[in-house]
Amino acid sequence: MSSRADSRAATRRKVVGEARVLFEQKGYARTTVRDIAAGAGVSVGTVMSVGDKDELLVEAFEDRIREFHEERAAGAEDTQEGSGSLSGQVGQIGLGSGSASAVDRNAALEKLLATVGPFIDLFAEHQEMARAYGAVLLVGRHASQIFGELQELLIGEFEAVFARLLQCPPAQAEQLAVGAYLAYVGALFEWAATPGMDRAALRARLREGWQGFMGVMPGRCES
Q1: How would DSSP label each residue in 55-85?
Q2: pLDDT band at residue 219, thresholds of 50, 70 and 90?
């Protein structure tokens, strides 16, 4: 990388980093491009060359999500061989053969909620940024980079839940996992667009949606 490219990259990191600090401290709505420029020690034109306010928000909040995901992944590695891992936690729940009851569906539902719980908490802790971020993505002017990465991760974890707790064959577990993920993303965007909806209401909406989703399937997947 050339020195000029290095300089541009450093400027971008400085601007996005300052935008994130101000969005978290002052709030997205109350932060101006001039505030970001002053904090980063650059001109307004330099800030705009990095991105407009919406683009800076998307990049700054996705940096926060990425850091959180890396911390979460590191924690999962630390407990991979114990009951803290997904397979360990799921595997400890006794599953005999034969027909399943609502207990199996409830166990799967609770595991799904536990999987996304930390992400819900992250969004709730940075509520204004998260809502503004969701609104920007809904408008469609700026694309998300992190959603594709998290989509693969969460669908994989959901698939493990359906495979282990409901004994779904791989193809059906994957299909159900994709459906559960889409319901999760839909609930997140609904939360972002509904100011009066807190994290408890979001969890309740997810629970309700997944209960309806799982209520139309047998207690265990059909082989």
Answers
A1: HHHHHHHHHHHHHHHHHHHHHHHHTTTSTTS
A2: low
Distance CA 65, CA 54 (A): 16
The domain segmentation of the chain, as residue ranges, is 1-51, 52-215
pLDDT at position 213: 79
Q: What is the DSSP string of 86-141?
A: HHHHHHTS---SS---HHHHHHHHHHHHHHHHHHHHHHHHTHHHHHHHHHHHHHTS
Would you state the pLDDT for residue 79? 54
At 82, phi and psi to the nearest 5?
Answer: -110, -165
Stated pTM of the model: 0.76
CATH of domain 1-51: 1.10.10.60
